[in-house]
Design brief:
Strand order of the largest sheet of chain B: 1-2-3
Number of strands of chain A: 10
CATH superfamily of the largest domain in chain A: P-loop containing nucleotide triphosphate hydrolases
Largest sheet of chain A: 6 strands, mixed
CATH architecture of the largest domain in chain A: 3-Layer(aba) Sandwich
Helix content of chain A: 40-55%
Order of helices and strands of chain A: EEEHEEHEHHHHEHEHEEHH
Structural class of chain A: alpha/beta
Number of helices of chain B: 16
Helix content of chain B: 55-70%
Number of helices of chain A: 10
Radius of gyration of chain B: 21 Å
Radius of gyration of chain A: 18 Å
Structural class of chain B: mainly alpha
CATH topology of the largest domain in chain B: ABC transporter involved in vitamin B12 uptake, BtuC
CATH class of the largest domain in chain A: Alpha Beta
Oligomer: heterodimer
Chain lengths: ~240, ~350
């Protein structure tokens, strides 16, 4: 579904993503882990079109999207969430999901009105359990609710492939567990392919089928959670000790 | 059927060519207050001939001030929409006003085009200039965009002096056809005011419709966070180019009004910073680029200057700026905010102002 070849991104003298190549198949849930500053979020920003790469190629479902704008990638079925929730604080929860419906390809294909888009946004809010909070301004929502809203907004673009960036950061264990279950449920209900960037290793190792590990901008390991937890390079670079699943 | 109208739950859905669809809210409660405001606004000039004599301001001065308020309002509405739809603050709106003014003046004088035709030409030429400059909204943002747009009027200023043969420098272009000529000066002034008010009202209606549509919603998202807008499928580049182009065209209409109202057009006078300040302040003082606020703001700014002039003479502009500073300080949500505070909560795109309130 997604094929990244020799991707490079530099910020001045720092090489944030250094010759990364990877392949993600349809229906997979892939964990992307690595220490802080290893280039995980930069990789997501490159795939979503937020950053333009300095080298390499990104192909999504056979289409070269390396030079495509973010809005074109969304219409192809790529969605993302942000590590630090980036919602429009002056808008209500419903409006924040509505503009994602408006930006989706389906909105144009079905020639929907704004009212119809709003009705559809309610559906996504209901899925993540925020229906009752629909009329609250985003600045009045708690972090946990903002994370859920990020997921609802990403879903509203009608994606095939979704990149979830540290959706559990700052949440307590119970909230993190709920979000993890929700991501699993969304994958099954919407038949999504997911790349899941996370720091909470115990949860991610249980939730994904394959793990990619980045360190200093490079992809250093690719394997099942069990293989990764025993990979000496990963243990040295990131974990410091073996994780017992 | 070219047009099909379908009433649905308090709204009229208008299908055009089975392709485009427009919605129009027909519920009377949404229309009551705007209608009252429009009627009062339209009745305003008819009261002026009955003004008591001996006032420091004469009826013609007041009618000219009201006309100028509409001219500034047209640019301020366009500028507000441009700020919302592009997420960028244009510091050279007077450039586009003057381009429209020169287009009208030159076409009328050299080619004998009637004011009706120069209206279309002024809009089209200014929009074309806007289209040529619209890539600026893609390649620059923030202070860079603002700086580039500050330079535009300065370039035109130099150009006007360089080609005196075409633009007439400070003398300008005299002998332009008047907007109306009935033989009665007072009637001319009142008719000119009504023409300007008609343009302002139509513009308000169109912009209000746009802002309440999905386009306005998308403009709001672009204004709030352009990167987020693009990340969720909103075609930011196309929207910014279209908004910039069309709003520049509308600013050109202000220039058209000025050229045909005075019968001569000297761009150097209108390229000066006071017009920029009037347009910007009308938008901000009116209420963070709320379009109805822009009208209130422009009336406040222009009338305050002209009412102060008989009392403080040449100090009028200084006194105006003092009043405006006080108003900006005391009314963070602008004049429109005073009205909006009492209304239901609804998202209408406005510019994002980084200020503690």
């Amino acid at each position: 579904m997604l094929q990244v070849s020799n991707l490079v991104k530099r910020f001045g003298g720092i090489v944030a993503v250094n010759d990364v190549s990877l392949k993600i198949d349809r229906g997979e849930v892939v964990g992307l882990i690595g220490p802080n500053g290893s280039g995980k979020t930069t990789l997501i920003n490159l795939v979503s079109g937020f950053y333009k790469p300095d080298g390499g190629r990104i192909v999504f479902e056979g289409v070269d999207i390396t030079k495509k704008d973010p809005d074109e990638r969304v219409k192809l079925g790529i969605a993302r969430t942000f590590q630090i929730p980036r919602l429009i604080s002056n808008m209500t929860a419903l409006q924040n999901v509505t503009y994602a419906v408006v930006g989706s390809r389906r909105f144009r294909e079905k020639r929907m009105t704004l009212a119809e888009a709003s009705a559809e946004a309610l559906y996504y809010l209901d899925i993540v359990g925020l229906l009752r909070k629909r009329d609250l301004l985003c600045r009045d929502l708690a972090l946990y609710e903002l994370r859920l809203l990020e997921l609802a907004r990403a879903l509203a673009t009608n994606p095939k492939f979704i990149m979830v960036d540290e959706v559990m950061a700052g949440l307590n264990p119970a909230e993190a567990d709920n979000v993890a279950k929700l991501v699993q449920r969304l994958r099954d209900e919407f038949k999504l392919t997911i790349v899941w960037v996370e720091h909470v290793l115990r949860i991610i190792m249980r939730s994904v089928e394959r793990v990619l590990v980045m360190n200093e901008g490079k992809l250093i390991a690719d394997g099942t959670p069990r293989e990764i937890s025993r990979d000496i390079k990963v243990i040295r670079a990131y974990m410091g000790e073996e994780v017992v699943i | 059927m070219v047009i099909k109208v379908e009433p649905r739950r308090g709204r009229l859905i208008i299908h055009l060519l089975n392709k485009w669809r427009f919605e129009w809210t027909v519920e009377p409660r949404y229309w009551r207050n705007p209608l009252i405001a429009a009627v009062l606004w339209i009745c305003l000039p008819s009261l002026i001939p009955f003004m008591p004599r001996g006032l420091p301001i004469g009826p013609t001065t007041l009618l000219t001030a009201l006309f100028m308020a509409n001219v500034v309002a047209i640019s301020a509405i366009a500028h507000s929409l441009q700020t919302i739809g592009t997420g960028r603050l244009n510091f050279g709106p007077q450039f586009f006003v003057v381009v429209g003014g020169y287009a009208a003046a030159l076409l009328n004088k050299n080619y004998g085009l009637s004011p009706a035709l120069t209206f279309l030409a002024a809009f089209a030429i200014t929009a074309l200039v806007g289209l040529a400059l619209s890539p600026l909204t893609i390649i620059s943002r923030g202070i860079y965009f603002t700086l580039i747009t500050i330079i535009l009027p300065l370039i035109l200023y130099e150009l006007v002096f360089w080609r005196v043969d075409i633009f007439g420098a400070e003398t300008g272009i005299p002998g332009i056809s008047r907007l109306v000529s009935t033989g009665n000066i007072m009637d001319d002034y009142i008719l000119c005011f009504y023409i300007s008010i008609a343009i302002t009202l139509v513009l308000l209606l169109i912009v209000d419709k746009v802002l309440r549509s999905r386009w306005g919603f998308m403009f709001g998202v672009i204004n709030e966070d352009e990167d987020v807008a693009a990340s969720f499928g909103i075609e930011t580049k196309k929207i910014k180019v279209v908004v910039f182009t069309l709003t520049c065209g509308v600013m050109g209409i202000s220039g058209w009004l000025i050229a045909h109202y005075y019968g001569s057009f000297a761009g150097t006078m209108w390229l000066e910073p006071w017009l920029l300040i009037f347009i910007l302040l009308s938008g901000v003082l009116g209420g963070k680029a709320a379009i109805y606020g822009a009208v209130l703001g422009s009336y406040f700014v222009v009338l305050t200057r002209d009412v102060l002039r008989p009392f403080v003479g040449e100090w009028a502009l200084l006194a105006l700026y003092a009043v405006l500073l006080a108003a900006l300080y005391l009314l963070p949500e602008g004049l429109w905010g005073l009205y909006r505070k009492t209304r239901y909560r609804e998202y209408v795109p406005t510019i994002r102002v980084r200020r503690k309130t």
